[in-house]
TrEMBL record:
The reaction(s) this protein catalyses: GMP + ATP = GDP + ADP
Class of the enzyme per the UniProt entry, highest EC level: transferase
Protein name as catalogued: Guanylate kinase 1
Organism: Salvia splendens (Scarlet sage)
Alphabetized PANTHER family for the sequence: GUANYLATE KINASE (PTHR23117:SF13), GUANYLATE KINASE-RELATED (PTHR23117)
Record-annotated Guanylate kinase-like domain positions: 132-314
UniProt keyword list: ATP-binding, Kinase, Nucleotide-binding, Transferase
């Protein structure tokens, strides 16, 4: 692309200032790079695009974009957070689709940049409220993971969401594509893994299984706590990744009982049952050895195990802390944004609206953790109505 446009502003090394032209915001990151966030760039017509002006070479770069992209709005504001990400606030929208993070130099972005050898950015949606860290549940085939997770989802539908994995295994009779798994061709899945779309993957019982970044994002974008049902290898990968989670291993009361359950379920051939039982030994060994899992639960009596699981997740009093989504507020098109320490102040000019006045929202960034898309969560906020 050609010359730098005339409207690029001077360098604002503290990153607090933004300048917009139409629906574009211009952010200088350090001395070398200017991010132009708006309609143009690599966004499709309906999403916010990003392009980067490299001052040292006077060249425009269109980065590879990870994560779910925000849809275009009539206007937005943007502000630099801690030098590694930009907070983008979509105007004329409500808090469930208002705060977006553009990760420009987080650990995840640096990792992907090194892997691809080209410029990378990553979007993630800011969910207002106490977003709780994902729950990883592992255990041998037939131990009752699916049964326990189904109970949790049924009892707390507003609180938990299931990360739908991809797998190359064939669906069972009762399984629906997109609900239990995304059933996928091996070649397609291998390509997606190569393209960095997976948080983790593993070969289990002769098939490929994996958690896509998007499958976790879909849940966290709803403000729900994500549950991952993954094998021990997957749990180890997640442990090693930047995704913070609580790790729970479900253990059978005995090997004989495991075999009985697996046979009683009646979903596998004899050959598949034998393979799963062989693998179960190693899984139980690894799962119960120290260091990987935070907690082990024995699933002997189902109700007792379920109660213990709820206890671990802070739900033992039976109270459904129904949702993480707090009060929804509207951020108008006209607003200003500033940053003081770990607080973002959004001052809304409501003069042109039905109920004129000024409202100030304060977003608390202290609970935001760095890392991959899907991790930039947990905004707390307070509303200071200045009517
Ligand atoms: N690493 C990894 N393992 C997965 C994933 N999804 C499912 N698994 C694991 O794959 C194994 C086989 O799952 P499945 O075929 O549904 O059989 P089941 O264990 O008998 O329910 C189980 O240990 C699951 O926890 C995933 O996304 N990643
Ligand atoms: N505590 C339990 N006691 C007896 N049967 C159980 C218990 N937990 C689960 N089951 C049964 O065992 C079988 C395997 O459970 P499932 O949830 O499919 O296991 P996983 O998802 O770990 O493979 C199912 O038929 C389920 O109804």
């Amino acid at each position: 692309m050609g010359e730098a446009p005339a409207f690029i502003s001077d360098d604002f090394s503290n990153g607090l200032l933004l300048k917009s032209k139409g629906c574009e915001t211009i952010i200088n990151m350090g001395c070398n790079r200017t991010f132009v966030i708006g309609a143009m760039g690599n966004g499709s017509d309906s999403s916010i695009g990003v392009r980067i002006f490299e001052k040292s070479t006077s060249e425009w770069v269109i980065p590879t974009v990870f994560g779910t992209r925000p849809t275009l709005s009539k206007g937005h504001s943007a502000i630099v957070l801690d030098g590694d990400r930009i907070l983008v606030i979509r105007g004329n929208s409500t808090s469930d689709d208002c705060f977006w993070f553009l990760e420009v130099n987080t650990a995840f972005v640096r990792e992907q940049r090194a892997r691809l050898g080209s410029e990378v950015v990553a979007w993630s949606k800011g969910v207002v409220g106490e977003a709780q860290i994902p729950v990883v549940i592992s255990g041998p085939s037939g131990v009752g993971k699916g049964t326990l997770i189904a109970k949790l989802m049924e009892d707390f539908p507003m609180m938990f969401g299931f990360s739908v994995s991809h797998t190359t295994r064939a669906p069972r009779n009762n399984e629906q594509n997109g609900v239990h798994y995304h059933f996928t061709e091996r070649g397609v899945m291998e390509k997606d893994i190569q393209d960095g779309k997976f948080l983790e993957f593993a070969a289990v019982h002769g098939n490929l299984y994996g958690t896509s970044v998007e499958s976790v994002e879909v849940v966290t974008d709803q403000g729900k706590r994500c549950i991952l049902d993954i094998d021990v290898q997957g749990a180890r990968s997640v442990r090693a990744s930047s995704l913070e989670a609580i790790f729970i291993f479900i253990c059978p009361p005995s090997f004989e009982e495991l075999e009985k359950r697996l046979r009683a379920r009646g979903t596998e051939t004899e050959e598949q049952i034998q393979k799963r039982l062989r693998n179960a030994k190693a899984e139980i060994d690894q799962g119960t050895s120290p260091g990987l899992f935070d907690h082990t639960l024995i699933n002997d009596d189902l109700e007792t195990c379920y109660e213990n699981l709820k206890k671990l997740l802070g739900l033992s009093d039976g109270s459904a802390k129904a949702t993480n989504i707090s009060e929804t507020v509207h951020v108008p098109l006209e607003h200003t944004v500033s940053k003081i320490d770990q607080k973002i102040l959004i001052n809304c000019n409501t003069l042109h609206q039905e109920k004129p006045g000024n409202s100030m929202f304060v977003l608390d960034l202290s609970s935001i953790k760095g890392g991959a898309p899907g991790r930039t969560r947990g905004l707390n906020w307070a509303i200071h109505d200045q009517h």
